[in-house]
Amino acid sequence: MSCPPAPIATPDVARPARAHVRAAFDRAAASYDAAAQVQRQAVQGLLAQLQASAWPVAVPVLDAGSGTGYALPLLAEYVAAHGSAPCSAPHLLALDAAPAMCQRSQQVLARSAQRGGASICADLHALPLAAGSVGLYWSSLVWQWCHAPTIAAQARRVLRPGGVLAVATLGTGTLGELAQAFAAVDAHRHVLHFEEEASLRAALAAAGFVDVRVQRATLTAHYPSVRAVLQALKAVGANRVGPGGRTAPLGRAGWARLEQAYERQRTAQGLPLSYQVIYLLARAGDAVPPESSAPTTPTTPTTRMHP
């Protein structure tokens, strides 16, 4: 499978280059599921938020950043129970920028007993979908890697009026324990820049979303050692931090300071690593802002259909 090059979009200097993020997740495809305990909790939390909203949803459903496809069967079950009348298009659209993740999603779709699905290898910043073609836009723990105004505008463009957006992303304070421990070592950036809730609300409003609902949750994993913390982040592809990151090895002395600082935060369960999850629900307004209505730079996505 080939994957189209990421199109040029509005610069986002606080985040790693999208090509680097895509490569990291491509490498993590085989190890992701075994290490993704928090990521799965976030999916379950977002599904609970969607169900609590009681908003009707329609197909097709776009899983934007589908990864290994964990959410796909859950979404299929949800739409079967809560969705409106089906259409002739595939019910599930699994989209990811990393080719290896797309392959994993394909395998999930191929095993699915649902009416059909399609996997698409493409960038969330330039969705290769027609305007108003999606009933539910779903994305779990992907937006933190992206430029929020751009992907919010893209989400609104592909949603039909009244369509539902359901997003779980990460806010400020995420990986705070790790950042605090690294602060005892040097002044480099060691965790990703995470958005403020207000910035996310503003991005949704500017894109033309209404009825915005926001909920927050703290999800915490525990590990036996600092090395296990870093290995877990690498296993899920979350080891890119963007500009300001350290390029030289820590060295023995730096590693010792890191371990000593993190050990001061140890609990009975182990070394904590917290994720500040922001759940966003919204509906697409009747009007699309002019800047959101124009298609982005065309791409030629790789798509696989499953009957």
Automatic annotation (TrEMBL):
One GO MF term attached to the UniProt entry: S-adenosylmethionine-dependent methyltransferase activity
Start-end of Low complexity biased regions: 295-307
Keywords assigned by UniProt, alphabetized: Biotin biosynthesis, Methyltransferase, S-adenosyl-L-methionine, Transferase
Annotated pathway: Cofactor biosynthesis; biotin biosynthesis
InterPro entries (alphabetical): BioC, Malonyl-ACP_OMT, Methyltransf_11, SAM-dependent_MTases_sf
Region (Disordered): 287-307
Name recorded for this polypeptide: Malonyl-[acyl-carrier protein] O-methyltransferase
Family statement: Belongs to the methyltransferase superfamily.
Coiled-coil parts of chain: none
Domain called Methyltransferase type: residue spans: 62-166
Domain of life: Bacteria
Principal EC category: transferase
Chain segments annotated as transmembrane: none
Catalyses which reaction(s): malonyl-[ACP] + S-adenosyl-L-methionine = malonyl-[ACP] methyl ester + S-adenosyl-L-homocysteine
Function: Converts the free carboxyl group of a malonyl-thioester to its methyl ester by transfer of a methyl group from S-adenosyl-L-methionine (SAM). It allows to synthesize pimeloyl-ACP via the fatty acid synthetic pathway.
One record GO biological process: methylation
EC number: 2.1.1.197
